[in-house]
Each structure stands twice: as C-alpha cells, then as structure tokens.
Specification:
Order of helices and strands: EHEEHEHHEEHEEEHEEHEEHEHHH
Helix content: 40-55%
CATH architecture of the largest domain: 3-Layer(aba) Sandwich
Shape: globular
Strand content: 5-15%
Strand order of the largest sheet: 3-2-1-4-5-7
Largest sheet: 6 strands, parallel
Length: 321
C-alpha cells in the first residue's frame, strides 16, 4: 500500500522539488503539499494547502483529514535569516517542530522525516571528516535549533514510539528553487549570475570550503531513509550526509570550463563567520553502512547538469517573450 504523505514547507527549497518526486512515486492523490503562503504551481504538483505549523491543532486536523501516515516536515528558517531574526528562527524551528511531532504522535503517524543540517557543528568540531559523534556546539541560532531539534526527535522516538528519521544535510544546490537565506546559497546564486550577467560577487572568501550536495541527491536521500526497514535506521538524530566539498574558487573554476568569460570577485560578509564555524568535510560512513547511502553527483557532474538545466530554462523563457 502506498503511503499517504503530508509535506510541510512545500514551497521551500527542498519541499518544492520533493513534492514532485513524491507525486511521481506515490501518485497525486496520496501527497498533500502544505505551506504558510501560496506560490505558483510548477508541473506535476498537487494543490498547495495553507497550513501554519505554529498552529498545532491545524496540523493535527490536516493529518487526520487526509488520513496521513507519513510526514516530511520541512518548514524552517535557514541560517543567515535565523541570525538576522533569532526569535523567529526559534519559534518556527523549535515550536513548529514540537507542534508537528505532537500532532503526528496524537494522530498515529507511522513515520516522520525532519532535516537536520551541518549547522549542528561548531568551531570545535573537526574541520576534516567531522564524525557522526562530534561535539555539537553551534554558534548560530539556526545551529542551536538543529541540535535541539535532533534531541527532541530522539525524545519522541523513545517516549512516544514515533519513527522519526533525519539526516544532516550539507549545503544544497538546486536548479529549480531560488536561494532561501542560507550561508551556502552562494553556490546557487553563482550559477544564475554566471549565465545572466557573466560575473558574480561572492559573499564568502574564495577558500571557504564547505560540504555541499546537489538537490537530486538530497531528494533521493530523504526518500531512501524513509523507505528502508525500521531496523536499518539505528539513529533517530540526524545522520551525517556527504556528497562533495569545494570552495567558491573551485566552484568558479569548474563553471569557467563552461562559461569562459565568467568573472568572480569576493566580498565576505557576516555569513563568512557562520561558514568558518562549520566543517569542510563530513564523515557519513554510518549512513552508508546502515541504510546504503551513496551520492551520485560530484562537482563536475553537478556543474554540468546545473548549467544545462538553467540554459534550457533561459532558452524556453526567451521563446515565450
């Protein structure tokens, strides 16, 4: 039997693409996309339902109304926005998560996915191949909410028998969704600027190496961990997840292989301090061992695919004018 799936934050960076993947796998009748604000529909997507995760009763009513047994809780405030508005980040990321966990537990949901992040790591974590069990001492409100969220998810798995599954996503690069206020969003902006303007002013240093992942791999990981047998999911905090690590300069050099006249300058801002607190690479051996995680995209493959997709869209838009 196919799961009946509720997605919160369906209009966001991950949600807007994950909904399409879930519809393709389980059918439109079994996927319920929700967000706090409406957005234009894109392709094979179910109608977007308005839902405020800060309203616990509304979340539970939505779960029961649709007979939901699986939840992907993606609604969140990201790192840079969270530093600018820490009260909002705490409210959405923590109170919203608790509301969804409470509603899911009360309504008898079978499985719940919640994304953690490399933001859980602080400056005392190893810079190279940060392990699963590294000390988690983040210096951002976003990171604080992710560490607290991991502990809360583990609590609900132990005390309420709620099957919560989670991964620590690195920076995500999407050809479809616009940047969402994260520290690693330069790696999305740079492609659009390269194609549209031929230049980019990066808000991180040229040598600021960070763990990154192409969105197709991230979507596959989220679905994969939710579909594996429960006995294979040993951890109910976030599993470390890795694909590639690179600096802005390395990414720019790869883009220049496709766009030779591309020019990049560097003007580090407050986001550089956040980047400095994170590891440069992640050890994801537990995810590989426990449930078979393997990324499919490296830097070369990601850049080639991104540029191809964006150029196709640019050509299609030009024809529509």
């Amino acid at each position: 039997m196919k799961p009946r799936v509720l997605v919160t934050g369906a209009g966001g960076q991950i949600g807007s693409e994950l909904v399409t993947v879930l519809v393709q796998k389980y059918g439109e009748a079994n996927v319920f996309a929700t967000d706090k604000v409406r957005r234009p529909s894109r392709g094979a997507e179910p109608p977007l339902e308005l839902l405020d995760i800060l309203d616990r009763q509304a979340v539970e009513r939505a779960i029961k109304r649709h007979g939901v047994d699986t939840v992907y809780h993606l609604a969140a405030i990201l790192s840079a926005v969270g530093e600018a508005n820490p009260d909002l980040a705490w409210d959405v990321n923590m109170n919203g998560l608790k509301n969804v966990l409470d509603a899911a537990s009360s309504a008898g949901v079978d499985r719940l996915f919640w994304p953690s992040s490399i933001g859980v790591f602080g400056p005392d974590a190893p810079k190279v191949m940060a392990p699963q069990d590294a000390n988690l001492n983040p210096t951002t409100m976003y990171g604080v909410t992710k560490v607290s969220g991991e502990l809360l998810c583990e609590y609900y798995s132990l005390k309420h028998r709620l099957d919560v599954r989670s991964v620590r996503f690195p920076g995500l690069i999407s050809s479809e969704a616009p940047p969402g206020g994260g520290t690693t969003d330069y790696a999305v902006e740079i492609f659009h600027s390269a194609i549209e303007k031929g230049s980019y002013d990066c808000f991180l240093r040229e040598d600021a190496t960070l763990p990154m992942m192409y969105m197709p791999d991230a979507l596959r990981a989220a679905v994969q961990i939710m579909e594996v047998e429960g006995r294979r999911v040993r951890l109910h905090i976030g599993y470390n997840l890795a694909a590639m690590s690179f600096s802005p300069a390395e990414l720019a050099a790869e883009i220049m292989k496709h766009i030779g006249a591309f020019k990049v300058t560097y003007s580090p801002d407050s986001r550089q301090k956040i980047a400095d607190s994170w590891p440069q690479s992640i050890d994801d051996s537990d995810a590989r061992k426990d449930w078979g995680w393997r990324p499919q995209y490296d830097l070369k493959g990601m850049v080639s695919d991104m540029i191809g997709r964006l150029r196709e869209r640019q050509t299609a838009q030009a024809k529509d004018v």
